[in-house]
Amino acid sequence: MRVQDIGYTPSPKFELDHLVDDVRRYQSLAAEFGRAEEADRIVAATREALEQKLADFDELVSTAPAEPDEPETLADIHEARPQGERRLLAEVPEDYLSRWRGSLLGRGAGCTLGAAVEFWSVDQMEAWGRQFDEEYPPTDFFSFARLPGSPRYIVGNTDDLRRGRMQYIPVDDDTAYTLIGLLTLEEHGPEFTPEQQAATWQRNFPIHSEENGSWGVFWGERRFLQNLQQGIEPRRAGRHRNPNVQSIAAWTRADAWGYAAPGWPEKAAELAFKDASLNHRRNGVYGTMFMAAAVSAAFAVDEPAEALEIALQEIPKESLLAEGVRWAFDVSSQVSDYRDAARLVSERYPHMFEGHAINNALYVVFGILLGGRDFTRVVGETVAMGNDNDCTSATAASIVGATIGLENVPAHWTEPFQGRMQNYLRDLPEFLEVDDIGERFVRQAKEVLGRS
């Protein structure tokens, strides 16, 4: 498949938004004119019609013909991938914990930095930096947060994202996914089934807080849990009425599988496939396999770009994601900073969803190619590219952190966390010691590598 094969002209986003807004305003206006009952009937009919159209979209996607270049079973994915180095290490490396700390604490730093400006445009972020006289691209955490004091992710607060205010890795779904992977492995082992994974998710993830109004999960993950609540069986719940099957979300869950299979990218990708297939398809799944394999390979190489090259060997070579990653490497000489990267990606995928697996994966690639082993440049440039930039910066930081080890991550990115992370999963306490999590991943890594 080639990128030119997916050309389309989408309905203008704001046109649809305005239509929904007009419905709300007309309903209010009708009530003011004494016609509330009739307005409610119109709204109910509108909702019913929209529900039917969404069902039609779901049917359209679910019955789409198979794409030979983008297979959906693990066996077919293996058949479609290029030749590669499937395993780099026979056992857990002696420096595992140093690399793991660099990766997890690095992930926390990248996520925290990006969360302050998530989904902001390049121009908005630059203006933000000028407003508060911040160095840009950022070389440290932001000193100010939007909507200060607002709740986030059930137990957190936006003030936790500010330089000088944080005392632990602030809570986020992107860090919770690393923990849910650990819990899944501890409870069910690497042979976990969709039903077992679903049970672990249901028991642990709060969807929404009635107390403070914050959400615990978004997009396809929220839809998956809501479908489970409605009694849909796990093997269908992740895809039913889910337009996010090629989103970035699944590959924010990738790190746990790389941690559990250090130096064994093929196994990390296999575990990632099982996880992502729960509620993603095609490039949404490949993105997770690619990132998990990159994290895994990072435990065995000295250059982050090499980890990306090895990871590319674990996904279908003609898929849109693989084609995009190869393109990013090919044009990297044209990219001198975040602006070049953002411009080139937006030109190549002009209508792609801001949370798509592909465009965001290329920001990770460009960030790593720009910064190499320079952790600060990698996270700063990646955040500055925009889109889902807490996810992209977290993953880029994780790959670099595992490559260079904690001792080579500048201390100002990790010392504010004081070796702790905040959590909202129900099976775990609100505050966790990073070293304790590391020891638990060591046990899982020994278990997984010992099964060879």
Automatic annotation (TrEMBL):
It comes from the Bacteria. One of its GO terms (molecular function) is metal ion binding. Keywords: Magnesium, Metal-binding. Mg(2+) binds at D173, D174, D388, D390. Its cofactor is Mg(2+). Binds 2 magnesium ions per subunit. PANTHER family: ADP-RIBOSYLGLYCOHYDROLASE, ADP-RIBOSYLGLYCOHYDROLASE-RELATED. This is ADP-ribosylglycohydrolase family protein. It comes from Microbacterium betulae.
